[in-house]
């Protein structure tokens, strides 16, 4: 297999510090040859790391994609509402595409992207990285082997983590649904994809409840300033005091969250950025609109029933799941890499411990990049596990859940999808 080349569209945290870094760690397999990024500091940083020549550094994806195809694939890592156009242009230019999730917050664009990949006969992979994790791969293997008999119910939870929610969904790029996408789509389309995969049947019905309850101006403590560093009297008693998190919390560095604040993570640069920047705002004085807790209930065509909970009010950022079958039960914790299986007949409990790297969705990010590069290196491209055709359903499930949350009505998913498909195809 020869080296796979790529252009990078969007050099933020996910694009620049996660997916593109695969080229630095595996230079014989993968190379970034061009970058499009409006932020000059981020653009120059990525260009320096990957030795990208000046003529291949672009301020906008439009300028880059106006050029003749110069690589095997495009990594589209722009903001949620900016995926459709660069993905479309890249497919038309002849690139295979790896697109950050979600595909789009717009139902019509999600469907059209799936159709375009088929039209141009190109790989369009969506970054549903959890399918590549050793944890969910093992769960799928256990279910398919009949380890707990017929699957009947799933109870899953995404603990967002109080600090991660404040960073990404209160102060950060995904705080406002109109500017990005609803929380259940942006954060949890991963989970919708996994639940659809494990249930092994199309979704039949969806209902959802959730609100933005806590991170609102009415809950701000007395005399709290708009920016944390403007002499906040609550700094020693506030879990969300920005300087403390970005300078002291281990996840700020290991997960790269500090690089959303400033391209350089030294103390002086961080404090300067927090004085006036969005990540230094009081969490009760932001323009956030996405929910901070939500539950989604689903019924699948094979009678499997699923309850999914997303909450900002947790200590850790983690995913846990319970799979209930006719012959047994499986409990799992992704971040701990622990799976516990209880057999109803024998009464025995079996425990499995998996190796889980501490970063990158427990190693899923790197595995996804490896598989994507290997896929493109094959002379005959096989089906990608997270291809657009597969991912359309899970995205539409998330949007149906959001419609249910807002309307208070249960959504008949088959009818919902059918009506959307017909509308796009007219």
Task: Offer a quick outline of the entry.
With 426 residues, the chain is α/β, with parallel strands linked by helices.
Key descriptive features of the protein:
426 residues, alpha/beta, Rossmann fold, Dihydrodipicolinate Reductase, domain 2, 3 domains, nine-stranded mixed β-sheet, six-stranded parallel β-sheet, 38% helix, 20% strand
Describe this structure in words.
With 426 residues, the chain is of the alpha/beta class. Helices cover 38% and strands 20% of the residues. It folds into three domains: 4-128 and 365-387, Rossmann fold; 131-215 and 288-362 and 391-425, Dihydrodipicolinate Reductase, domain 2, CATH 3.30.360.10; 219-280, no CATH class. The protein has helices at 13-19, 21-25, 40-50, 61-65, 84-93, 107-120, 134-144, 162-170, 183-186, 189-199, 242-248, 250-254, 258-261, 267-276, 360-377, 388-407, 413-425, and strands spanning 4-9, 30-36, 57-58, 73-76, 96-99, 124-126, 151-159, 203-211, 293-300, 305-311, 318-325, 328-333, 338-343, 349-353, 411-412. The strands form two sheets. The chain has a nine-stranded mixed β-sheet. The chain has a six-stranded parallel β-sheet with strand order 3-2-1-4-5-6, with helices on both faces. A hairpin with a 4-residue loop joins β9 and β10 (305-311). The two termini are 42 Å apart. The model has no long low-confidence stretch (mean pLDDT 92). Residues 140-381 form the Gfo/Idh/MocA-like oxidoreductase C-terminal domain. It holds the Pfam family GFO_IDH_MocA.
